[in-house]
Records
---
Amino acid sequence: MGDTRPVYQRIADDLRDRIDSGDLKVGAQIPSRSELKRAYEASDQTVDRAVRVLKAAGYAQGQFGRGVFVTDRTPLGTLLRTTGAVDSPFAAQISAADTSLSWEATSVTTPAPRNIAERLGIEAGDRVMCTQYEYLANRKPVQLATSWEPLAITEGTDVVFPERGPYAKRGVRGRMAAIGVRVVRASELVGSRAATSAEAETLGCTPGQCLTVLERTHYDEDNRPVETSDVVVRADRWRLEYVIDYTA
């Protein structure tokens, strides 16, 4: 039986196979549009669609005026999702031993969007502290996150700004404990979506490329949500590590 895949998919699959096998190495230029058209007897639109698929999967990236080149897909590291992981915004293990880790943060007061209000168990429009994080490895952005905390809990306290004040950089549990709120559990939902243009520019990928998104919410002992956040990383460069301890 003949190959029933659409031509654009066959081109993209063949190029992926060549990259995975090492025939096309990191930094190598993908065959030009004219070469692919000739090899597959395809139209401009079909070839362009195949290359878009390749870019969205993180296998290639365009360079203005030069062409499309194979990208490095070696994992940067692992996000540690364990009870024992340090309760900091950047709980990660980087592959390279000599990597310097840091982060930058900006906090603003804003009305809670409807989806965030639902996650926090508050009304849409209620005031929250929104903190945008950019995590850096050797000064290059590798992870983004946005955190929301109800101001009904933190306003007027020393922890209202997560990265400022006497309890800065202590993580959600440490900061909440400082104002008498005991955080007892967190839940995470893991999903994926396409990168926006702004995210792609920051993370060094292509708009539309697949990102991994972790939606995490912290709860106190009354099962009240006290913080929720979205962590965003490139799906082709990061793995997730979950450690599950069994108790008797």
---
Amino acid sequence: MQAKDVMTANVVSVSPEHSVRHVARIVLDHRISGLPVIDDDGRVVGILTEGDLMRRSELGVQALAPVDRQSSTEESNAGAYVKSHSWKVADVMTSDPIKVDEETPLPRIAALMVERGIKRIPVMRGEHLVGIVSRAELLRVLITARSDATAPGDDAIRRSILTRLREDAGINVDELDLTVADGLVHVSGAVSSQSERDAVRVVAEGVRGVKGVFDRLSLA
């Protein structure tokens, strides 16, 4: 699946010249946790989130500068002050946000969210915003994902497990004795770590038709 398959197309946005109070009202009214900032030329120039709003001086939050003032710089202190006190979106937003195009695969989007510690990514068609993907959209994919297409029958289940162990988990299946009877998986042999042992179980449990896994593996 790609970004275009899961994105929210009707995106609420604000201008860099809008007020922070205006954004707070939009966040509450639309029950969203963040929104893109778009300039007069239609370019995405930033992202403003409820996390940014929670650091405001109006709330009495003293996150105006790094806790360790001895290692902080005057520049970082001043920047934190501006973000917590300015009324203008342009001063508070995160500039130059990560963006993806419509054809970006979901695994890549998930990886970006994890790597950058972000919760939403604007989706672009050229220079124009066409949607936004949030963590919520990715979680919906988990809920609606179809079961794998493993054919019915014990032999097909066994082949599928061995293939996934070898190709997806990188486990040497030559050291394993794996049988399937009426959907029940019995596996013995030696693995090199507890992580590999866990991977064998997880792979087997994830194959369609498996009713249970009996683990008799030992650590080499």
---
Amino acid sequence: MKIRIGFGLGTHTSANEAGSFGELVDVLEELRFDSLWLSERLTGDGPDPLTALAFAAGRTRKLKLGTGVLVLPGRNPVVLAKEMASLDRLSGGRFLPAVGLGAPTPVEHQAFGVDRKDRAAWFDEAMGLMRRLWTEDHVTHHGERFRIEDVTLRPKPIQQPIDVWLGGQAPSELRRVGRLGDGWLPSFCTVDDVARGWEVVTATAAEHDRTIDPEHLGVLVTYSYRAIPDRVRALLAARRPDLDPADVIPVGLDALRQRLTQFIGVDASKFVVVPLEEPDDWGTELKAIADAVGDLQN
């Protein structure tokens, strides 16, 4: 099992200018982190993931480039498939897309122009169409939302196929991963959540005559250095009132290492660590993380 550790930025990151973001990218490459992951929130401070990852691709040679996650409902799947294929080619096959339905907030739904009740159906149709466009020529599709006739998307991505990961922990989300995903990347979850969820994902995949690579189980792990802020505790309480916030947000790098080790114990092998608080200096922060957990990679 190949253990890989990447680094992610939250939706309210201040690393959204050429100087700060460029420094972050350069240090990640220098310290040999596996990947950089950017989340999407139209109303957040973070940069657009595809634009920022294209910027990162031009500064790096080995760093993989992930979206964690990019919102699918509200986008034209043909245009998005072209953008993703282009990024994969220009990065030399380093693109790692994770996609989802979007944040469960009315302002985000309005910004994307999709009613909450329509998101799942939009996602399912768009995901299937994008896969065909990446791998087939002369694609014809007559769906409820999209109709195309004899479209051949060029250029095709280097990766054949591109593996698309999904997030989420609700029962319907786990089943969607099993039906449509190539990997699972949940966030704000416990070790038991991951173990139980993976059972549902793999069982659902088998029901649909699919197999998901056993190494495609990952976890996005948010960490903190200080006490978890009250605002974050309130958000977690609304989402998971049964949990102690420390069960999903390790405090300190020792706790982060211990949590990753526990996840490895239930067969997770791909990790994205995300700081709850942004550091004053990215170089110092990333060096500390590399020293604390880098040797878990193999």
